[in-house]
Amino acid sequence: MNVNDLKIFEAVAAHGSFTKAAEAMFTVQSNVTARIKSLEEEFNVHLFKRTSRTVELTSAGEIFIQYCKKLNHLTETVKQELSATDKLFGLLKIGCIETTMALKIPGVINEFTDKYPDVTLNFKADNSVNLINDVLTYKLDAAFVAAPITAPDLGTQLIKEEKLVITTSEKHPELKEYLTKGPVKIVVFDQGCSYRPKLEAWLNNKGIINYQCTVLNTLEGIINFVEAGIGITIMPEDLITQLYYNRKLKTYPIEGDLGLLTTVITYRNDIPHSNAMKVFMSLFQ
Predict the structure, then answer these.
(1) pLDDT of res. 85
(2) Is 127 exposed, middle or buried (0-12, 13-18, 19+ CB in 10 A)?
(3) In the CATH hierarchy, which fold is given to the domain comprising 90-160+262-282?
(4) For residue 4, what pLDDT is reported?
(5) I need a surface site. Which of 47, 97, 140, 243 has the fewest CB within 10 A?
(6) Does CATH place domain 3-71 in 1.10.1040.10?
(7) Burial classification of residue 42, based on how many CB atoms lie within 10 Å of its CB (0-12 exposed, 13-18 middle, 19 or more buried)
(8) Do the Cβ atoms of 249 and 226 come closer than 8 Å?
(9) What region, left, alpha or beta, does residue 223 occupy, with left being phi > 0 and alpha being psi -120 to 50 degrees?
């Protein structure tokens, strides 16, 4: 077994095809087949279930893929650390929930890249559920997500406790009046968003269980729809006051725990971090 064998195995698992894995790895299918056969003989297990149409991981393959991702991640980290000079360099893959991406990340990028121009930062925006899974599967080095984090393999560092507000259009009547008129309309991200269940719980506390839901996948889209009067939403207060203060929006406070959301940065706590990752994390201590 060598590092390239592990990368080939990951490629087959990712693409579900020996042919597509060969294309992705810039090799021929016969080589992919031989390397997978070698791994299976070495561990005396079948790693894939092969049919005429699909290639799927066996139960042994599901176990092996987790170790494979960990080993590949560690290998890349070691390469960066051993080849390091007096300059900090490398690649960091960071995930963010969209509100954090809009509000906090631009300043972080400016500060970090000014100090460490040889480190490449790749950012991905998504909901907390998907980002946490990406950290667990080594697709991301870390992610800004909403607490709590329950996965035992993940550590967290507090970023901020955000105050949430109900956000409506200036065209809307006062919130109390709007909620009694019906039908109540909300504009939210899809399932997996950390804010959406807060809004739904708040409505339930008001005795509102039936409401019309419009789902969008961008922050700007939600703000535009709310401003147009299509529905109400829930957002961090700082986001509205700092980025959307000039829009035709109104905000209303939320009492209690529903009005708070804790943002953390999460990372795997069972692997060593590269020097670049350590420095990046130190920005938030």
Answers:
(1) 54
(2) buried
(3) D-Maltodextrin-Binding Protein; domain 2 (3.40.190)
(4) 85
(5) 243
(6) no
(7) exposed
(8) yes
(9) alpha
